[in-house]
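Q: Got a minute? One more chain.
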Amino acid sequence: MRTPAPQTTPPSPAWTLDLGARVVAPSTVHFKVWAPRAEAVSVAVDTAPPRPLSPTPQGYWEGAVPDVATHARYAYVLNHTLERPDPASRFQPDGVHGRSMVMDPSAFPWTDRTWRGLPLERLIIYELHVGTFTPEGTFDAVIAKLPWLRDVGVTAVEVMPVAQCPGARNWGYDGAYLFAPHAAYGGPDGLKRLVDACHAHGLAVILDVVYNHLGPEGNYLGDYGPYFTSRYPTPWGQAMNYDGPDSDPVRHFIIGNALYWVTEFHIDALRLDAIHGIFDFSATHILRELADAVRRQAGRLGRAIHVIAESDLNDARTITPVTQGGHGLASQWSDDFHHALHAVLTGERNGYYRDFGGLDHLATAITERFVYAGRYSAHRQRRHGNSAREAAPAQFVVFAQNHDQIGNRAQGERLSVLAPFEALKLAAAAVLLSPNLPLLFMGEEYGETAPFLYFIDHGDPDLVDAVRRGRSEEFAAFGKHDAPDPQAPSTHARSRLQWKWDGPPTPARKFLPPWYRGLIQCRTSVPALGTGQPADGLDVRADLDARVLTIHRTSRSGPAACVILNFNGTATALPLSHPEGRWTLRLDSDSPAFGGTHQYPAPSRLALPQVTEPLRLPPYAVWVYIDDSG
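A: Always. Here it is, folded:
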């Protein structure tokens, strides 16, 4: 663990948040809010009478107020009667309906002065939900687990959304205060302690942010101004107003939020949730403007900072450089890879899995990024996507499971209860030895079996009923109707990781951690097994009869690698003559060290194409070979 010299103030960012409550001098706070719908705006601080703010151009109201202490509670008063929390509140200690709190961002004692972030290609991502990752469910409790994550080999922690939501139990996608880290998790100082500790362990931090909608409960932005529009429907409520009248301040609000996280909280990357729910037909798309703003700020801060998208569009424009007509985001999640891998492992064909199931789909996902790149989708009943063949491998994040793919199942089942132990090792290898950026979901490295269910903690009974109905309708496409009540505390409790396992020893808990470490060690020590580079070679061949995938990867920086993945649940005979070379075994999933039986040991050396007899592969075998031809 690094122990850099303490740093009491962050470096000059050449950018500061100009919205909300800003400490400008001892006991003096400048307040600024966009409220074009108001005829008068004042700010009420603690028990003092409201103090009027002055109108400024474009519908803003602002003013410096003396005798205001850090941690004072305040609210805006609209038209002399309506008291509302600050849309740009840095902290909501009493929840979404309570007053906001004045925070001084310069007060935190950062120790990460030498941290410069990680290049995109070095990211090995671990996604977690703060509220269920530990029994305590706080930012500080996550810190105690960082040595474990570092030991497994991950290099980046991705935190599901932390913006203040109703109650204490929520996935985070119902955030109503985008600048306020959730009070139940530990608030802004708790998040800063977590980021600082991650950097001390050499781990980057990715924050999941939601810019397509806001949660319905506690969302008072409509009282201030036209933050939302009815022109575009989304599954989650009104879309953000990015291209209509008065949209400039809305864009300023969202871009300010992105810069706020990377500047005040030292976040290393932003994962933008569901950008297919972001609608903008202006000449400069909000995604491009946001990515450009973050890129410029990264230059000022002297750190590597990335913007990563989640998208259902299969549209390469998201990651295409601006100079080529794209939005210029660094990377995006690859649902096609997940669907192809999941369908071939489990045999599921309901919902969106209808479009997948062949081993050739997985081969296409690895080589061409999108499986659906303009071809007809039976699930969508139309052609879907465009080509991403020219995109770099690092521009796609791949996974065997994530919060959505588990939590959007009626029973929240993980792969560990849907597939046998040997298949879990196969899935991990497919992800961690891919040329793309790998992502793990919390607990998968030891075969966690607790579900990850969808849970909420809303105070509005009508809203709770609406969520229940919506979930039931969503699961109908998958033939499921028996999801647990998302509002019940037990649903949240069942979703916590079981770090202290009291049951009988399982192969997964004993052997998966060393398997993950072995895969990551291969990925980081053998260039041909790392994140693919433009000059690298990639040849993926699917033997549909044998159900075996052979991946041949080359690199200018070292020897070639050959990965053999058997997707059969039984032993398989594989005639093999490619790739040509003299190959030395590096990793065998059937080794006793990884819980295997060695009934059919992998040959320690292979000379191809000289092998004349078919190879005998154990069920779900993973064999990794390195070329020693010299």
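A: The chain has a mean pLDDT of 94.
Q: Perfect, thanks.
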